[in-house]
Specification:
Blueprint lengths: L1 H16 L7 E11 L2 E8 L4 E2 L4 E3 L10 E7 L1 E2 L8 E2 L5 E10 L2 E8 L4 E7 L4 E7 L29 E6 L16 H18 L3 E4 L9 H10 L4 E8 L9 E5 L6 H11 L3 H6 L1 H6 L2 H22 L9 E6 L3 H4 L5 E8 L3 H7 L2 H26 L5
Parallel strand pairs: 1-6, 12-13, 12-14, 14-17, 15-16
Antiparallel strand pairs: 1-2, 2-11, 3-5, 4-5, 5-9, 7-8, 8-9, 10-11, 15-17
Length: 391
């Protein structure tokens, strides 16, 4: 046994000390966000992730002083000894994150656990990154750790629980201006103005509102949904403004996530995600890993409520509002949402009429009023269904 251990240690030392093979990618950064009932780990790379299967879970090894852990192997990546000391977390859920050169052509990402209930593993592109969400109550000194066998009360499925918290996500921000339209109007400014108009209208209707950003700052897509999950949001509304090569195109459209998508939605999703349409197609593999089937019907209903209310409810002075419909779309920001989630394209900045309207605070306020009314009707409609009444 001792000889075998020595051999393994020698092999690991040789792998780390070996000359780097040509053609391998690099680990760019390792980040994490800690929230009340889960922690998100993001490993950013400079190339697409070659992921083979789900993360594997290993029990604690007390003799070797090793905690319970998850690990994922990634091929085609070199890290050498950059993360030998690991990334400490110590948030009551995770102890830390370690990355090692598992083979000459692959790395192993290890998450040392303090407590574990479940996890979720997804990959995203542009930038390429691995996302690991670890869920569970924390052992952080703020309360007793759950005893073995004590069940953790799950949230009710989407559509059955009361709708209280709405997460508003103003798209883009900071160094990412989004679309730039007529007169230099920037998408990041339009979305923040609309979000700031929407929040107080929702609060006046009894909602608790969480905004992913309330200032002009850049926010990674994975952090937007992390904030939503941490807030235990019931609905996620991402606000955007559209663009098109033909300046005559104008109108409003609302997207929801589904296993399938329509051809037109690829172009919109590509622009919002910062990828090409062919790369968006690859995202469908990610959809299959998520519980899309649970939230998709509710997301579709929410999108239809919002789309219908904006088109029909805007003041007469702004009519007609071209109705481009409620559509399926493979958007990054919707992939990581476990709650009903929609993306609202409030108009085309490349169209003179839409751009002028979206630059007008009165028009933006009127649109915010209609979105707030749609969410209220969606909430009340769901409450009636839950009580067995006719919608």
């Amino acid at each position: 046994m001792r000889a075998r251990v020595c051999a393994l240690l020698l092999l690991a030392a040789c792998v780390v000390g070996a000359q780097r093979p040509a053609g391998l990618g690099d680990v760019v950064n390792v980040r994490f966000w800690s929230y009340p009932d889960y922690t998100r780990v993001v490993v950013e790379l400079d190339r697409a992730v070659d992921l083979r299967g789900d993360a594997r879970r290993l029990p604690a090894d007390r003799k070797a002083s090793r905690p319970e852990r998850l690990y994922v192997d990634l091929e085609g990546v070199w890290v050498g000894n950059r993360y030998d000391t690991g990334v400490p977390v110590g948030d009551g859920l995770l102890q830390g994150i370690r990355i090692g050169q598992h083979t000459r052509s692959g790395i192993r990402v290890v998450v040392d656990l303090e407590h574990y209930e479940r996890h979720r593993l997804v990959t995203l592109s542009h930038p390429d990154r691995l996302v690991i969400d670890v869920y569970g109550p924390r052992r952080d000194g703020r309360g007793p750790a759950p005893r073995s066998g004590t069940p953790v009360a799950p949230r009710l499925p989407a559509g059955l629980r009361a709708i209280e918290t709405v997460v508003i996500d103003p798209g883009h921000g900071g160094r990412d201006p989004g679309a730039i339209g007529v007169g230099g109007l920037r998408e990041k400014d339009v979305t923040l103005t609309l979000a700031r108009a929407l929040a107080p209208r929702l609060e006046a209707r009894g909602f608790h509102v969480v905004m992913t950003r309330n200032a002009d700052r850049e926010l990674p897509l994975e952090e937007r949904s992390a904030l939503a999950e941490a807030a235990r949001g019931d609905l996620f509304v991402s606000l955007h403004a559209n663009a098109a090569p033909r300046r005559s195109v104008h109108g409003v459209e609302t997207y929801y996530l589904d296993e399938n998508h329509e051809r037109h939605s690829l172009n919109v999703a590509a622009r919002e995600n910062g990828v090409t349409p062919s790369q968006v197609n690859a995202l469908q593999r990610t959809v299959a890993k998520l519980r899309v089937s649970e939230v998709s019907p509710h997301s579709r209903r929410l999108a239809e409520f919002i789309q219908r209310q904006i088109v029909r409810g805007m003041p007469r002075s702004y009519q007609p509002v071209p109705d481009l419909g409620a559509k399926k779309g493979p958007f990054h920001v919707l992939f990581l949402s476990t709650m009903p989630a929609v993306l609202v394209e409030s108009g085309f900045l490349t169209n003179r009429t839409d751009a002028a309207r979206l630059a007008d605070p009165a028009y933006v306020g009127a649109m915010a009023e209609q979105i707030a009314e749609a969410l209220t009707r969606f909430r009340d409609d769901g409450a009636r269904v839950a009580l067995g009444e006719s919608p």
